[in-house]
Amino acid sequence: MEHGSFQDPSQATFSVTDEDHTLANSLRFILNQDPRVTFCGYSIPHPADARVNIRVQTTGDVAGEVLKDSCQDLMLVCQHVRSTFDQAVMEFKNKEGLKSMNIRQ
To answer: What is each CA distance from 14 to 2, 69, 87, 88, in whole angstroms?
Structure first.
């Protein structure tokens, strides 16, 4: 849900339900890497409430579009981490990993 201003679309607060610090802090990091972002922060209104508020202020671009772009960038980062990890595990198993642990295939 977006809580923005119709007069200034470069500033908005977004409420994301069923999320916590894991997504919010990662998204905050990605948003702060974007040169279009002048401010980004998040808050959790109450620990018992599974909701995160993310505030985005930009240099003039629509805040919702910048947030959407950052979500896609975060997804790409996660995919890269996952594929790098999977490749490292596969290389470990194929090389010396199983031999050094005395495990038979």
So the answer is: 4, 14, 36, 37
